[in-house]
Each structure stands twice: as structure tokens, then as C-alpha cells.
């Protein structure tokens, strides 16, 4: 059951640097991540998967000191990066236009309607302005939240196939973006959101804090409004 995997999932503190995921296991995790919800169907995020240690070292200065070892030792480091506000606000953004057209076509197929240019433009305007005009968070932060939703799918998919994982926010966004940009991995309309480490515990160091997952009881954290 899904609850069994969720209960057993723990953030791994130390990885075995000599153990790597099988390609089919990594592909399975990718497939599960790809099913995650995406607001307005925009698929805000992309993933850079670093498994080569030399390549990890090239961007290591962007990782906080306390996270460098597990970043290097993990089998795979998934860097979720997202579209920035400037991407959405760019009037001549052909990629945004194509996504908007694709989504409108999908909706129209349900109602057997033909797509119109006005529908596409209205969709894009709503994303750029209407839905976020009175929102304290900008479109970049909105994109980052979509990446966090996707990361949740990664943790459960990994545990299902006995792969350990770690959510990692311990990085310098400015430095890491600069390094990724210099290497051509991202462009200036994209930014790092979070990192998910995958691999296998080293079995020697303390793999987790505590022997089991500790949570407050459900009745203290959930309230049903009738």
C-alpha cells in the first residue's frame, strides 16, 4: 500500500558512493514524477540529473557546506529548475504560446470545439496578469511550488523500489544558477527550485535521525470542517 511506503520513507543523511541506481529504476522514478499535478497544465519544471561525480564537482560551490558530501555520494542528484516570471511575461515567448495552444486544444476536444486565437491569448493573459495580480508571490515562486509537488512524487516512487532519497534546499540559488547558466544547463529565464538526492544508504554512518519516522498524531494536525 502507498501508506506503507510513505511511512517507511526517511530522509537519508549519508549515501554509499559506490552504489548506483539501475537505469530502469531511474526511468521509473522519472515516469512517476512526470504524472504529478501541474497548475494550468504549464509543466513549470524540468530536471537535471547529475550522476557523474566530476560533473557534480563542477557545480559543488553552489551547494552548502553541510550538504556537499551527500550531494557527491548520492547516486543521482535531481536538480529541479523552473520558469521565472520573465518567461511568462515575455510577449514573444513562442514556447508559452505552444503550451497554451496545446492546453486549449485538449480542453476543446472534450467539447468538440475548434480552437481560436482569442482563446490562446486569453489563456496567456490570465496566467500573466489576472490570476496573480493580487498575489503576494510572483510567477517565479508559483513555478517553484509546482516543482515541490513533483518532488513529493519522487520520494514515494523511490521508496516503492527501495531507493533512498533526500530533499535538499541547502544551496546558494544565486551561485548555483550562475554555474548552471555558465555550463549551458539552464538559460537566464530559468532558476533552480530544489534538489532531490537518490541513492542507497552507506550502512555505516547514521543514515537517519532516529530509528523511525516521528510525527504528531493525526487528530492534532487535521481538522475537518463540516
Structure description:
This protein has one domain: NADH Oxidase (3-Layer(aba) Sandwich). Helix content is 45%, strand content 13%. The chain contains 10 helices and 4 strands; from the N terminus they run ααβααβααααβαβα. It has a 4-stranded antiparallel sheet with strand order 1-2-4-3, sandwiched between helices. α1 crosses α8, α2 packs across α8 and α6 crosses α7. It is globular and about 60 Å long. The chain starts with a helix and ends in a 5-residue tail after the last helix. The mean pLDDT is 90.
How would you characterize the largest beta sheet?
4 strands, antiparallel
Shape category: globular
**What would you give as the CATH superfamily?**
NADH Oxidase
Q: Element order, helices and strands?
A: HHEHHEHHHHEHEH
Fraction of residues in helix: 40-55%
CATH topology: NADH Oxidase
Overall mean pLDDT: 90
CATH class: Alpha Beta
Total of domains: 1
- Quantity of strands, as a count: 4
Backbone CA Rg: 20 Å
Give me the CATH architecture, please.
3-Layer(aba) Sandwich
What is the topology, as strand order, of the major beta sheet?
Answer: 1-2-4-3
Which blocks of ≥5 consecutive residues have pLDDT under 50? none
Number of helices: 10
Provide the structure class: alpha+beta
Question: What keywords describe this structure?
Answer:
226 residues, alpha+beta, 45% helix, single chain, NADH Oxidase, 4 strands, 10 helices
Amino acid at each position: 500500500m502507498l501508506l506503507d511506503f510513505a511511512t517507511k520513507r526517511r530522509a537519508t543523511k549519508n549515501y554509499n558512493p559506490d552504489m548506483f541506481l539501475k537505469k530502469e529504476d531511474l526511468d521509473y522514478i522519472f515516469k512517476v514524477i512526470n504524472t504529478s499535478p501541474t497548475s494550468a497544465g504549464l509543466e513549470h519544471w524540468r530536471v537535471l540529473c547529475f550522476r557523474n561525480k566530476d560533473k557534480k564537482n563542477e557545480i559543488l560551490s553552489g551547494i552548502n557546506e553541510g550538504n556537499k558530501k551527500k550531494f557527491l555520494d548520492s547516486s543521482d542528484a535531481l536538480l529541479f529548475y523552473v520558469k521565472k516570471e520573465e518567461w511568462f511575461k515575455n510577449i514573444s515567448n513562442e514556447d508559452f504560446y505552444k503550451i497554451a495552444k496545446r492546453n486549449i486544444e485538449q480542453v476543446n476536444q472534450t467539447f468538440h470545439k475548434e480552437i481560436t486565437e482569442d482563446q490562446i491569448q486569453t489563456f496567456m493573459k490570465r496566467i500573466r496578469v489576472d490570476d496573480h495580480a493580487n498575489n503576494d508571490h510572483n510567477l517565479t515562486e508559483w513555478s517553484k511550488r509546482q516543482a515541490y509537488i513533483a518532488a513529493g512524487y519522487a520520494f514515494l516512487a523511490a521508496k516503492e523500489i527501495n531507493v533512498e532519497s533526500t530533499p535538499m534546499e541547502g544551496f546558494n540559488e544565486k551561485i548555483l544558477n550562475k554555474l548552471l547558466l555558465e555550463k549551458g544547463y539552464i538559460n537566464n529565464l530559468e532558476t533552480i527550485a530544489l534538489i532531490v538526492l537518490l541513492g542507497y544508504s552507506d550502512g555505516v554512518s547514521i543514515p537517519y535521525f532516529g530509528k523511525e519516522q516521528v510525527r504528531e498524531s493525526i487528530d492534532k494536525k487535521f481538522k475537518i470542517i463540516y
